[in-house]
Design goal:
The complex is a heterodimer of chains A (111) and B (113). Chain A has 111 residues and is mainly β. In chain A, 0% of the residues lie in helices and 55% in strands. The termini of chain B are far apart. Classes of the chains: A mainly beta (111), B mainly beta (113).
């Protein structure tokens, strides 16, 4: 089992749709979690942190479920500009620092 | 504000040639620094990270090495490139204490021929 797993997609959705991605992780000692966005042939850019209490930034909502060991990203009212690859990141600090990126989920938003 | 620079943006090198990629960070002190590689259509692979000058941790044994000669400078090197070294090399930094949000430079696209 991979340490961090994402559905590679692609997710093809119409503008205005709501879309959700999940990311599962295997190490229960993992301590910090993030979502990044990566456009084609560009560097990843931090989208948002993920907290147990959940956090929202405009149309984006991130959640952490420690019991089931997954994080989620919800995008509401999708825009064409949301088309990108979304990467989850899991950091573990116990026993030495470890950061693992998921392979990413591709999203295409179509008019 | 903090900025991170990488150069060159693109590089084409023959097999067996040496490599030196440089990354510098401005606007912060004592950052954690990271080198990643992303092969075409693949996820990011952490190669090295550094928590301070001269302190390098290697994640994947290979023909690459990293050095941190100054607080905000991180260098990725190879003595002899392999075809499998082709990829998108990304440098990133994070604050010295958690939760370790990382910020990436623009990357170097390396093609080994």
């Amino acid at each position: 089992r991979k340490e961090v797993e994402q559905d590679p997609g692609p997710f093809n959705v119409p503008e205005g749709a709501t879309v959700a991605f999940n990311c599962t992780y295997s190490n229960s000692a993992s301590q910090s979690f993030f979502w990044y966005r990566q456009d084609c042939r560009k560097e990843p850019k931090l989208l948002m942190s993920v907290y147990s209490s959940g956090n929202e930034d405009g149309r984006f909502t991130a959640q952490l479920n420690r019991a089931s060991q997954y994080i989620s990203l919800l995008i509401r009212d999708s825009k064409l500009s949301d088309s990108a690859t979304y990467l989850c990141v899991v950091n573990t600090l116990t026993g030495g620092f470890k950061t693992i990126f998921g392979a990413g989920t591709r999203l295409f938003v179509k008019a | 504000s903090q900025t991170i620079h990488q150069w060159p943006a693109t590089l084409v090198q023959p097999v067996g040639s040496p490599l030196s990629l440089e990354c510098t960070v401005e606007g912060t002190s004592n950052p954690n620094l990271y080198w990643y590689r992303q092969a075409a259509g693949r996820g990011l692979q952490l190669l090295f990270y550094s928590v301070g000058i001269g302190q390098i941790s290697s994640e994947v044994p290979q023909n690459l090495s990293a050095s941190r000669p100054q607080d905000r400078q991180f260098i990725l090197s190879s003595k002899k490139l392999l075809l499998s070294d082709s990829g998108f090399y990304l440098c990133a930094w994070s604050g010295g204490t958690g939760p370790y949000e990382q910020y990436f430079g623009p990357g170097t696209r390396l093609t080994v021929t």
